[in-house]
């Protein structure tokens, strides 16, 4: 009886975690470049039940009854990196990546700070002339004169960017957007971690020249509202079912204690 109570409670905990993931997806449906998450659950290791009620030659012997599951648990929260819809904005410093790849931004001074990765290409020029994201992080690029990777600084706000990320000002190539991917990691983004502000942290990022950039465009969130809403309804019904199971178990335990236990 107690085992069944634990099983139902573990189910409620899992459904509550799923609800948190789904509501976060729905809250970011209009966030540029946002990638939705999926929560995977798995069952606890099964437990073998047995007793010694069986008698052989007058002795009690072990008898296997079967396996029982002790409920579900959270396995992993995986991010879905499928392409979002690319929409034109006609703003010169909006950029979208078509296919694989990430922009690189640097927090703090662009030199000693940490590099992070994002699909959110909603950039603008700050008061000091640096290209930054909405959080004020420096957008990194390769200086085509010195060859150094540094924060992109533009003297003119009328820059054009080609599909390879090359930035041209007054018909002069100045920078190339630093575009990276994680193809050395078995072609997946399994080790990338969301850190907030629509940024990711990860290792083994490598620059690639075959990443396609579109200027004056933004990649929309890849969250499917209809699917997430259906998932949310399923989670709520499952949570409610587990709650009713716990209520039934509680009533049964109450009868066992108050009625069966009081019989003399």
TrEMBL record:
<protein>
    <submittedName>
        <fullName>Flagellar basal-body rod protein FlgG</fullName>
    </submittedName>
</protein>
<keyword id="KW-0966">Cell projection</keyword>
<feature type="domain" description="Flagellar basal body rod protein N-terminal">
    <location>
        <begin position="5"/>
        <end position="35"/>
    </location>
</feature>
<feature type="domain" description="Flagellar hook protein FlgE/F/G-like D1">
    <location>
        <begin position="96"/>
        <end position="165"/>
    </location>
</feature>
<dbReference type="GO" id="GO:0009425">
    <property type="term" value="C:bacterial-type flagellum basal body"/>
</dbReference>
<dbReference type="InterPro" id="IPR053967">
    <property type="entry name" value="LlgE_F_G-like_D1"/>
</dbReference>
<feature type="domain" description="Flagellar basal-body/hook protein C-terminal">
    <location>
        <begin position="215"/>
        <end position="258"/>
    </location>
</feature>
<dbReference type="GO" id="GO:0071978">
    <property type="term" value="P:bacterial-type flagellum-dependent swarming motility"/>
</dbReference>
<keyword id="KW-0282">Flagellum</keyword>
<dbReference type="Pfam" id="PF00460">
    <property type="entry name" value="Flg_bb_rod"/>
</dbReference>
<dbReference type="InterPro" id="IPR001444">
    <property type="entry name" value="Flag_bb_rod_N"/>
</dbReference>
<dbReference type="InterPro" id="IPR037925">
    <property type="entry name" value="FlgE/F/G-like"/>
</dbReference>
<keyword id="KW-0975">Bacterial flagellum</keyword>
<dbReference type="InterPro" id="IPR020013">
    <property type="entry name" value="Flagellar_FlgE/F/G"/>
</dbReference>
<dbReference type="Pfam" id="PF22692">
    <property type="entry name" value="LlgE_F_G_D1"/>
</dbReference>
<comment type="similarity">
    <text>Belongs to the flagella basal body rod proteins family.</text>
</comment>
<keyword id="KW-0969">Cilium</keyword>
<dbReference type="Pfam" id="PF06429">
    <property type="entry name" value="Flg_bbr_C"/>
</dbReference>
<dbReference type="InterPro" id="IPR010930">
    <property type="entry name" value="Flg_bb/hook_C_dom"/>
</dbReference>
<dbReference type="InterPro" id="IPR019776">
    <property type="entry name" value="Flagellar_basal_body_rod_CS"/>
</dbReference>
């Amino acid at each position: 009886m107690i085992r069944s109570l634990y099983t139902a409670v573990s189910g409620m905990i899992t459904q509550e975690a799923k609800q948190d993931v789904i509501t976060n997806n729905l809250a970011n449906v209009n966030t540029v470049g946002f990638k939705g998450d999926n929560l995977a659950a798995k069952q606890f290791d099964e437990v073998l039940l047995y007793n010694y009620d069986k008698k052989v030659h007058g002795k009690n012997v072990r008898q296997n009854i079967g396996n029982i599951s002790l409920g579900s648990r959270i396995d992993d929260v995986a991010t879905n990196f499928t392409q979002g819809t690319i929409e034109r904005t006609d703003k010169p410093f909006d950029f979208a990546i078509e296919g694989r790849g990430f922009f690189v931004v640097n927090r703090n001074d662009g030199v000693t700070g940490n590099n992070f990765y994002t699909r959110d290409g909603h950039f603008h020029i700050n008061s000091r002339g640096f290209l930054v994201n909405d959080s004020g992080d420096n957008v990194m690029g390769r200086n085509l004169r010195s060859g150094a990777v540094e924060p992109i600084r533009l003297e003119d706000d009328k820059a054009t960017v080609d599909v390879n990320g090359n930035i041209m000002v007054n018909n002069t190539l100045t920078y190339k957007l630093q575009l990276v991917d994680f193809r050395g990691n078995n072609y997946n983004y399994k080790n990338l971690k969301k850190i907030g502000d629509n940024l990711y942290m990860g290792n083994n990022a490598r620059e690639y020249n075959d990443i396609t950039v579109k200027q004056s465009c933004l990649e929309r969130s890849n969250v499917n509202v209809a699917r997430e809403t259906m998932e949310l309804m399923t989670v709520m019904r499952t949570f409610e079912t587990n709650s009713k199971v716990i209520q039934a178990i509680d009533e049964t335990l109450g009868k066992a204690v108050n009625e069966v236990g009081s019989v003399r």
